[in-house]
Write the structure tokens for this entry.
Amino acid sequence: MIDKNAGKIAPKEILENIAELISCYYTNYPNTQDETQKIAFGTSGHRGSSLKNSFNEAHILAVTQAVVDYRKAHNITGTLFIGMDTHALSTPAHKTALQVLAANDVEVCYATNFEYTPTPVISHAILNKKGSDGIVITPSHNPPCDGGFKYNGVDGGPADVDITTWIENKANEYLSNDLQGVVYLDFDEAIQQEPIKAYDFMTPYVKDLKNVIDMDIIKQSNIKIGADCMGGSGLKYYEAIAKEYGLDITTFNDSVDFTFSFMHCDKDGKIRMDCSSPYAMAGLIEYKDKFDIAFGNDTDFDRHGIVTKSVGLLNPNHYLSVAIDYLSRNREFDGLGIGKTLVSSSMIDRVANDNNKELFETPVGFKWFVKPLIDGQVFFGGEESAGASFLRFDKKPWTTDKDGIILNLLSAEILANTKSDPGVYYENLIKKHGKPIYARIDAPANSEQKNILKNLVSEDIKANTLAGEKITSILTTASNGAKIGGLKINTQNGWCALRPSGTEDVYKIYAESFIDKEHLKSIQNDAQKIVTSLF
């Protein structure tokens, strides 16, 4: 159901009351008997809202102390890099975390002048200083009322489930015991502590970009670039990149507005800084003919959104296919494979095969690409939700978290080098490999139903065909042997995947057809019948 405000500038009546949001952060305390008010790490950290008692000062005091405890238990003594995005709750949460870290004598680097720091920049910093780790205060592209807290380990990537479970349990223990055992200083005292240091994150990241993107070819092409910062944490980065490399970049929405009143509403009528949504990106799409290439990022700049003259906003799956094909042909990545989530387009499978690249399918979540990127098993890891990263020219990891900045800059490199924008490039892939039609459906599901889907085994599926085609495989584990938390059914010309959401009370049906829309609809109908039979 598409809301009447979808794709329109957010009406004033839905803008968040920022004063109330901040007030509730400090005055409300969670009820630990209510599961929705406890710390819960999903695929991208803990997210919540002060208005719902799920992201308040107590949560950040508890979870930061839990991170400190985890570091002590695992002898992590290096620098902790901390960053935040531009959600209203991020600033108070950032200060709260510093109060706890200072009291525990943790060596911390925070951004000079309390500037905002993109998620990939934190990962980049961790990888360039051995033994360090990081915290990012961000709920990603969530609405303005939300806050988020993410821990990145010494490998620079999102912490895996064993680590987050440990931190989550310890944090909830502190919440249940009225924060006994949590130590913190007054903020003014905290930032005066010797181990707490201001740090310039932007300069080393920007200067290093030439080692992962061909900045020279972009400069020589003189292409006009539009960059929608979407009021996010990297709002000063594109200007710095343009200055460093002599690029023609025009930036939009490059100042902070905690209400995000400049945004166009997403399909459900909510303000959501989702750079993969044609509704949220309607503003930049209007400008597509004014630039040779344009792009946007979500609030913590770990996702990308590419806008071309040829097609407007490029579907994330389409751009992943383009990026993988281009990098396969324009980098010395011989012998290295490609990582993709199980619910990403099968066009990637065909591109990988065409380039003689081994394909590794993983469950949903970028954390599954961290080790393969570090070990040089893959040169690229990408998710269907517009998140990806890839190796430097020298085959070493650039980031082990999603990096929307380099994926956006890569689109400019592709145009500069091939003279075709990524939309035209994808059309050429279609001519070669066929045209896939991809869709995702979200439907309500309670915790019991989500648990059923999470623990499916192939024997639960009684059908032999899907949309009239013989089922060729039923997968409950990925290439790396990890459980996918759901199930994927493949046929010769299509597939579907069923999995519960990790953050909302819904389940998701992903489906794709290489035949036509009717075939896709048939796949979706059969998938829904399967879910109904399971419930």
Notes: The domain at 15-200 is CATH 3.40.120.10 (Alpha-D-Glucose-1,6-Bisphosphate; Chain A, domain 3). The two ends are 24 Å apart (CA to CA).
